[in-house]
Design the sequence.
């Protein structure tokens, strides 16, 4: 089920999570389409797109996210549609389309920051940072500020993997900066990754 797929994803078992999601999506498609099944389909699709981004399949993640947007719009799932837009901005950043990603984020900001969960508020700041980092005109300061806001959201819900991602990109943005700042960012990344791996082992069956 969806919880199992989420757990496998957090444990780093992306193939296992993808297999569970594919089976769940196939089952959902066989039944009648209601707002509740549509909600579950979009949730599965967003997780699937997130995994595709993790494995470097940005084009596939883009297609999956666009399909989720269509379903969300058809069933008037405004908050889920906004979450899709955040992930769409991440896809655009991965494809090197920073300006498009930032434009997309602007449309999602009011709904996500006003009504979204800590997870999606954090993802919004994170996507903003990725778009800024892929913009050659950015010096990294604005992106690091966005990553700090994202990290604060993720810390409130104990999302260690996403905190680790923030630490990683902070370190990347500090390349060429004073070594002390870069060393601190790398140390934080390693510490968060060790905590995440320990938690994943503890939750393993």
Sequence:
């Amino acid at each position: 089920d969806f919880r199992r797929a989420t757990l496998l994803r957090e444990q780093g078992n992306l193939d296992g999570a993808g297999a569970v999601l594919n089976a769940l999506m196939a089952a959902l498609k066989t039944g009648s389409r209601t707002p509740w099944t549509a909600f579950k389909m979009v949730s599965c699709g967003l997780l699937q797109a997130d995994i595709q981004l993790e494995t470097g399949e940005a084009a596939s993640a883009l297609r999956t996210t666009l399909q989720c947007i269509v379903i969300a719009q058809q069933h008037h799932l405004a908050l889920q549609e906004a979450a899709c837009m955040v992930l769409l901005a991440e896809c655009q950043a991965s494809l090197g389309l920073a300006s498009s990603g930032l434009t997309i984020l602007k449309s999602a900001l009011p709904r996500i920051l006003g009504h979204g969960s800590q997870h999606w508020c954090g993802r919004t700041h994170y996507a903003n940072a990725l778009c800024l980092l892929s913009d050659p005109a950015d010096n990294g300061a604005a992106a690091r500020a966005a990553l700090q806001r994202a990290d604060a959201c993720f810390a409130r819900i104990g999302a260690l993997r996403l905190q680790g991602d923030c630490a990683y990109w902070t370190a990347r943005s500090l390349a060429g900066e004073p070594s002390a700042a870069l060393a601190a960012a790398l140390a934080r990344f390693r510490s968060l990754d060790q905590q995440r791996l320990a938690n994943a082992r503890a939750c393993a069956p």
Observations:
- The two ends are 15 Å apart (CA to CA).
- The chain has a mean pLDDT of 88.
